[in-house]
Amino acid sequence: MRASHPEPAVAVTLVSALLAIGAGRSAWGVVATAATVLASQLAIGWVNDAIDAPRDALVGRRDKPVALGQLSRRTAAILGALAAVAVVPLGFLSGVPAGLVATLAVTAALLYDWPLKATVLSVVPYTVAFACLPSFVLLGAGKTPPLWIVAAGGLLGAGAHFVNTLPDLADDARTGVRGLPHLLGPRGSLVAAATLLLAATAMLTFGPPGPPKWPGWTALALAFLVLAISSLFVRRDAASKMPFRAVMVVAVLDVLLLLVT
Measured between alpha carbons, how far is 198 from 19 in angstroms, rounded to an integer? Predict the structure, then answer.
């Protein structure tokens, strides 16, 4: 379980289930949605730890069971492969279009694990996979995903990539990983994350038909306020953790706004 990256797996699965409820799916449809997304998240986590085990061991990661020898790379790889294969039939329980999108999402995510993580294209799998998430849910509900929600999902995913990579930049540099965040550096990655997440907030605010609603305006105002306050901390202390925390807050705001929208 620890090798499956349980926190993001549970979080993304929960968001997907809530989106399915909001889209009007039946109880069975919500279960099918959650099972598909959970399988994809388990596949991503196990495959990631199997591939990265030598690098994780080199930098002394104590939170990685495979790197610590508590779980074999072979076992993690087999579990990851089984979970990835399970995504396909589970996805097609929501219909052919939704099944195809689910397959595309898990394929993109696994391509991040290898080989795109260490290239300038590292942001692409996150963008594609997160754009697929609301599309999968809405297609499963028999609805056509509007362009604005697909774009918002992609922007949120791209921002999440920079946020997720920030704590590991130094360790990745020691093991030869050179993705886009590593090329931009810590400050550049923070700016990229903040910009992308603000763009996602704006898309969720102004994208839906009709005038923007109060949740969107509130999220935008809070996002700008949080990021503005964090910039003051950076001016006082270049090593401040406040920008990272601020970007995480904006990411949570975007997820909540996505659910409300």
Answer: 21
Cα 225 from Cα 144, distance rounded (Å): 34
Q: Which amino acid is at 165?
A: T
Q: What are phi and psi of 145, to 5 degrees?
A: -65, 125
**Helix 27-58 with 6-22: angle, nearest 10 deg:** 160
Concatenating the DSSP letter of every residue in 115-182 gives TGGGSTTTHHHHHHHHHHHHHHHHHHTT-PPPHHHHHHHHHHHHHHHHHHHGGGHHHHHHTT---HHH
d(CA 76, CA 140): 30
Domain that holds residue 63: 1-119
Q: Are 156 and 258 in contact (CB under 8 A)?
A: yes
Tell whether 261 is covered by a domain: yes
Same domain, 79 and 161: no
80 and 168 fall within a common domain? no
Please report which helix (H) or strand (E) contains residue 87, including its range: helix 73-92
Tokens 């929600």 map to which residue? 149
Q: Which token pair is 165?
A: 């990579």
Type of residue numbered 168 = D
Q: What is the pTM of this model?
A: 0.90
Amino acid at the residue 34: A
pLDDT digits (tens, 9 = 90+) for 23-78: 999 999 999 999 999 999 999 999 999 999 998 998 888 889 999 999 999 999 99
pLDDT, tens digit (0-9, with 9 covering 90-100), for 173-218? 888 888 999 999 988 988 898 899 999 999 999 999 999 999 999 9
For residue 63 the two structure tokens come to 């939170």
